[in-house]
Specification:
Structural class: alpha+beta
Number of domains: 1
Distance between the termini: 60 Å
Strand order of the largest sheet: 1-4-5-7-8
Order of helices and strands: HEEHEEEEHEEE
Radius of gyration: 20 Å
Shape: globular
Number of strands: 9
Helix content: 10-25%
Length: 181
């Protein structure tokens, strides 16, 4: 009887250690369930501000002004910008949908939408983007993966936080566009 209890306890401990630890960091309020990306030319820019100098340098290369987002305290915060580039019409959108920590990886999921091929849209150029400012410790992990709503990996960053400790908590500092209440 004691052997059976000990064996059961060992099995439970093994199962607990084998499970994946998933912690939600951010979940968008926007419903992107029906979003489809019909274009093969993505031109999607994914910019994560690991430090102020790198962030500003990348923003300077984009074809749209993000001057309001240039400065942040890189010892406390990390900005994330997902920008679709100049688009020929309305109907394009992007959303940072979800950020989770899964063991050694932080997974950022973005959703993109483009107009359907036969859909009538205004033909004025647009510059769709989404932006988040997170506490630095929220993203710290061995690997950061950015994927689209279909699970396709768009960017991967490895060991960008040497010597920084992983912390699991949920706080969004700033979100654009602001949600209407």
């Amino acid at each position: 009887m004691v052997k059976n209890i000990l064996l059961a306890a060992v099995i439970v401990l093994l199962l607990l250690n084998a499970q994946t630890l998933i912690v939600g960091i951010y979940e968008s309020d926007r419903n992107t369930d029906g979003w489809q990306w019909y274009t093969s030319d993505s031109r999607t820019h994914i910019v994560i501000g690991f430090n102020q100098e790198q962030w500003s340098a990348v923003l300077d290369t984009l074809d749209h002004s993000f001057s309001g987002y240039y400065y942040f305290d890189d010892s406390k915060y990390i900005p994330i910008l997902v920008y679709l580039g100049e688009r020929p019409s309305e109907g394009y959108e992007v959303d940072i949908s979800r950020i989770v920590k899964e063991n050694e990886r932080t997974i950022i999921t973005i959703a993109r939408r483009s107009p359907e091929r036969e859909q009538y849209v205004n033909t004025d150029p647009t510059y769709p983007y989404d932006y988040l400012l997170l506490k630095r410790e929220q993203l710290i992990n061995e690997e950061i993966i950015v994927q689209d709503q279909y699970g396709n990996i768009l960017a991967c960053y490895r060991q960008v936080f040497p010597g920084e400790e992983r912390i699991y908590e949920e706080i969004v500092i700033f979100e654009y566009p602001m949600q209407e209440f």
